[in-house]
C-alpha cells in the first residue's frame, strides 16, 4: 500500500476506514475488523455521533497489546459550532475523551462554515455566524496552538476550495497539512489536486464510492451510480476485482489518501485489497475521461447568502 508523507516525515496509509453514517455497535465492530485486517488509518468526526463507540473499540484493541496506539493514524474533525477560538480546544478535548486517546494524528476543520456555539444542525440563517464574526484564520490559529501542545500531531481542513486555501495562505504562516474533499472519477478536481501538490498539502478523498447510503435529504434526482458505469465495470472485469475496488484504486494510484466507509467484513477486506490494483496508461486515460465535475455532497445545505456563505465550493 502507498503511504502519504507529511513534511516532518510522519506517514499515513493511503487507504483508511471511514466512519460517517455508522451506528454505534456496527462502527465498533467495523473498527475492530479493520484493525485486525491490516488497516492503520481511521477517519472520525465529532458530528458523526459515534466517537464514544469508536473509543471503546480503540481501548479494547490497544489494551490487547497486539496493535499499539502509535501504529494507528487517527483523524477527527472540528465541528462548525466550535469555530470561535475559545471553543476549539474544548472541542478537541471532548473528542479525545470520547475516543479515549491522548492525542490525534490529524485534526481537521470540517467545513469553512461557522454556526453559533449552541447549534449542532442549523435550522435557518439565524443559527450561523458570519465569516466576519468567526474568521477562518482565527479558528486556524487556535488549531495551531493545539498542535503546538501535542494534542494533534498534524492539522488540516476539509471541504476547502482553492480560493479558500489561498485566502487562508495569505493570512497565516502555517498552511493546512491536509485537505479532505470529495474525490472520485466523476469529480477529479485536477486544479485542486495540482494546487495542493504545489503547496505541500496532502489530499484525502471522501465519498469515493458515491456515498449511496447518505440521507435522502442530501441526495439529488437521478444520481449516477459509479458502480454501474461501463468504464468501471469493464476495468473491474479486466482486473478481476469489484467495481468498488476500481474506484478506491483510482484514488490510491493517484497519490491521495482515500477513506471508504464500510461495516461489513467482506467490504472492509475488499477495500484495503484495492491497493493491489495497478492501472496501465490506457486504464488511467479511460478513468480520466469520466470526469464531469459531479458532486454527491453538494454543500448547498450550508449555503446561506445573507450570512456570507453563498457558494461553499466557490464554483
Write a short abstract of this structure.
This protein has 315 residues and is of the alpha/beta class.
Q: How are helices and strands ordered from N to C?
A: EEEHEHEHEEEHEHEHEHHEHH
Structural class: alpha/beta
The level of helicity is 25-40%
Q: Unreliable stretches, pLDDT < 50, 5 or more residues?
A: none
Query: How is the biggest beta sheet arranged?
Result: 8 strands, parallel
Strand order of the largest sheet: 3-4-5-6-9-10-11-12
The average pLDDT value, as a whole number, equals: 96
Distance between the termini: 34 Å
Verbal overview:
This protein is an alpha/beta fold and 315 residues long. It contains 10 helices and 12 strands. It has helices at residues 24-36, 51-64, 85-99, 136-148, 162-169, 190-198, 230-239, 243-254, 265-273, 281-288, and strands at residues 3-5, 11-13, 17-18, 41-43, 73-78, 104-109, 114-115, 128-129, 152-158, 178-182, 202-206, 257-258. The strands form 3 sheets. Strands 3-4-5-6-9-10-11-12 form an 8-stranded parallel β-sheet. Strands 1-2 form a two-stranded antiparallel ribbon. Helix 5 links the parallel strand 9 (152-158) and strand 10 (178-182). It is globular and about 55 Å long. It starts with a strand and ends in a 27-residue tail after the last helix.
Reconstruct the topology from this structure.
Elements: E1 3-5, E2 11-13, E3 17-18, H1 24-36, E4 41-43, H2 51-64, E5 73-78, H3 85-99, E6 104-109, E7 114-115, E8 128-129, H4 136-148, E9 152-158, H5 162-169, E10 178-182, H6 190-198, E11 202-206, H7 230-239, H8 243-254, E12 257-258, H9 265-273, H10 281-288
Parallel strand pairs: 3-4, 4-5, 5-6, 6-9, 9-10, 10-11, 11-12
Antiparallel strand pairs: 1-2, 7-8
Helix pairs in contact: 1-2, 2-3, 3-4, 7-8
